[in-house]
Amino acid sequence: MSATARKTAPNAEDIRARKGDDPLVSLTAYTTPMARLMDPHCDFVLVGDSVGMVLHGLSSTLGVTMEMMILHGQAVARGLETAMMVIDMPFASYEESPAQAFRNAARLMAETGAGAVKLEGGVEMAETIRFLVKRGIPVMAHVGLTPQSINTLGGYKVQGRDEQADAVLADARAVAEAGAFSVVLEKVPQGLADRITAEVPIPTIGIGASAGCDGQILVVDDMLGFFTAFKPKFVKRYADLGPLAEAAIAEYAAEVRARTFPAAEHVFADQAPAKGGKA
Ligand code: KIV
Q1: More exposed terminus of the chain, fewer Cβ within 10 Å: N or C?
Q2: Domain membership of residue 198 as a residue range
Q3: Does residue 220's CB lie within 6 angstroms of at least one atom of ligand 1?
Q4: How far is the CA of 219 from the centre of ligand 1 (A)?
Q5: Number of structural domains found in the chain
């Protein structure tokens, strides 16, 4: 489906129905202007908890709060017209019990207008996913590398090589059976990602997985070159805007110091201009 043919934002069931169809396109967003730029090109936009690292300078996603997600979710919602908005449940907002997850998922959706929540985890989160879906909350799952668990996974490692493969496959099957409408596969080996895509009945969304997934997602600040603290292998820099922005800032600083900015065209005359003239 072309971006121009679509007039209204898809919902979770529309996304589920895209299994095996044209690839689903997605990026993360945290602000209104960026959401506006990607809205015509994306099927869904994720307000990712990666916001903590890329916009707030945190060293992991563990410090991200419900309040941060709500604030950024509200900003992104203002920039979207035709893409669906999915919002991440932050660390410690859903793991304790299905009831805790429902309370926080409902709050995220009510206060931001998101059409679904995303949460991390496989077999161990299946009961929670079932609980949420039965109560009207569409859930996107996230298996493989789950960044909220880096302390138990031992870092940002590929998940599912060799004897780990069965566990990641079991996670993907469990979240699909529990009612998730799609599942993010992060940092999963290509062959395993293809196998999961073939076996589970819901769309797989790859990030560091395989071009054979039902869709792809990237962190927008990674693919635009704004986040430079590190670059995972799976990130393709479609633009290198960080250095461009820094060069512009350096030029501004030099012009201010040389008193060449503001120039005549940026300042206001003491006399009001004649009618129809410029201020
Ligand atoms: O928080 C995030 O940006 C994510 C994506 C990497 C899928 O979960």
Answers
A1: C
A2: 3-239
A3: no
A4: 6
A5: 1
